[in-house]
Design a protein that fits this description.
Strands 1, 2, 3, 4, 5, 6, 7 and 8 form an eight-stranded antiparallel β-sheet that branches. The protein is of the alpha+beta class. α1 crosses α4. The protein folds into two domains: 185 residues; 119 residues, no CATH class. The protein is built from eleven helices and eight strands. β4 and β5 form a beta hairpin. The longest helix is centred in the middle third of the chain and has 38 residues. Bound molecules: heme C. Heme C binds next to β3, β4, β6, β7 and α11. Heme C (HEC) binds next to β3, β4, β6, β7 and α11.
Amino acid sequence: MTGSVLDLIATEHPAFVHVPLGLVIALPFAMAISFKAKHPHPWKLASFFLAGLAFMGSVVALISGLFWGRQISLIPPGGYFPIVASEKQVLQKMLQLHEVAAVVGVVLGLLCLIMLWRTLKQDEDAHHAAPTLRRRLADRGVGIAPLFFSLLWLASWGFCGKLGGIMVFGNEETNKAAAAADQAKRNDVEADLPIRALDYASLEPGQATPTRSKAHGNHWARIWVTASGIDDYKAGKPLPAGAYAVLSTVEDSRGKPGQEPGPLYMRETLADGRVSFAFYWPRVPESSRTQTGGEDFAYWRSPSEKLKACAVCHTTAGPAAKQ
Ligand code: HEC
């Protein structure tokens, strides 16, 4: 039960925040009227009432925002602020500002509420004072200070709400960043799997039988090259731009190629002439995990630090130096 109520106030955060915000918009108007009204006291009372409701609403808004942030994993469990790990995390950066503005607003609201309460108290004291003093005190309205604080309260929440709106609906910047990330992911079909290397059997075989390759983990290896590069490969020349070679491997079994597949190696000449490497080992046997830093799965791509060793032998787009 409590879980579902909490869930509700959490997910309804974007709707609920309008309640205290609306009250804080109304507050300076009630306060301003208290300066001019024939009977200022009821307006002071109304201002106190509005500020009190707004303050209580704001506490609920803070809590609901916190739970919502945790629910959608923007705020770490048990934490209060999102962690900004990189400059690209526009949403997290915005949420930090949003939270600061919200808390500043609540503190200003509390000060405003205390000041209003003191004005009411003064009114009560003035009730027992001489009639002239009573009029003077009553004529002051709620006072300039609480009015000023109510406007600051509204300003910080206005800013907070603007950021909230951007986080929920997006603006040009966040939408562009999201679209760019989406497009980059879609353009990079090999983000999760080396599709072309896995399809090595569609390439031209570089040699007929597997040979044991000391340079590549001592697995049995066969080389496959794109049609666009096979002639150059056979002539010992660098692969042309766009061409790539795959070295498929199987594990050794008593001095012969075994049945267990080993890692895939790929080397590609990019359009700008640079060389790019990839290494894919979907199931690393326990005994070989020292080679993958203890991982049971490895998919590394240039410019990964882990492929630095490849460039030691493959210094040019041409054949690697025999070691
Ligand atoms: C110790 C030197 C050495 C290292 C390190 C090395 N290679 Fe190689 N590589 C070679 C040699 C030599 C060949 C030629 C075939 C053979 O002898 O196995 C080759 C062939 C290849 C081929 C197929 C043919 C070609 O010329 O492209 C690929 C693909 C390849 N290596 C990728 C890699 C990747 C990826 C890495 C790093 C994970 C790597 N190699 C690390 C020496 C090395």
